[in-house]
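Quick illustration for those who missed Monday's session on complexes.
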Amino acid sequence: VTNGSQQAIDLLTRVLLAPGDTVAVEDPGYPLPRRAFGAHGCRVIGVPVDAEGLVVDAIPSRARLAYVTPSHQYPLGMAMSMGRRQALLAWANRVNGIIVEDDYDSEFRFGGRALEPLHSLDTSGRVLYVGSFSKVLMPTLRLGFLVAPTSLSAALRKAKHLADWHTAVATQGAVAHFIEDGLFAQHLRRMRRVYAERHHRVRSVLEAVAGDRLTALPSAGGLHLAVQLRGRGGTTDRALAEAAHRLGVAVLPLSRCYLSGAPRAGFLIGYGAIPTGNIEAGLRRLRRCL
Ligand SMILES: Cc1ncc(COP(=O)(O)O)c(C=O)c1O
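Prediction with pyridoxal-5'-phosphate bound:
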């Protein structure tokens, strides 16, 4: 049990990686883990993603660890295909590598069938599974977990002990009771409905008020939608996000998630914390910035 998935990443980095090691990350991808790998002195290489997820054939030959978000690629939103899951596991077996599976929001899937996590498909103990309560309950709890092969558990426990002894016991106890009393399952059922409604609302309002400038990318669920910007007229998505911020609308520029190559311009629109009834007004303000 860790202080969010970010601490799980930090601990596994300390245990498994040495400065100078090469780490493969999705490009675009979630910036915080790659910053943690980089701060440890690792060479972080971006690997492209396509509609099936990470392009496994493009993993650099020096890499021995790959960090991925297979159930809901961050930031673009697609799920990794079964073929790519198998290919990634085969890669890990071939190079004696490790896969870090960040499964941060798969509780909120609104359609289609969930694919098996890499961790369940793995038969050789090469997948470290990272989970978090940040999306499913709230990010300020700082509660996450790491499911690691038995061969690594002693070293990981030692690293956690050296870092901060343990995650707050009161928080763990409260969440454990919440789960045992059935309230967590109830919360999930309710929030699945609420988030699905917000997801569809963001899509339909966007299409109506900004369909000429913004295209929503296909997404399996989660708490954000990635949208691509068309015809920027020389303005960057960062400048547009700043302008939106001045109007009281927080969107993340998509280009921030790119490590290399030509970033796609666009935004991540989060709907975890906005009442459904405020979505239209927010998106209309975003439209004014465009
Ligand atoms: C890709 C991804 N992984 C993990 C997390 C959760 O991180 P943490 O558990 O450290 O809050 C998030 C939250 O935004 C995320 O977007």
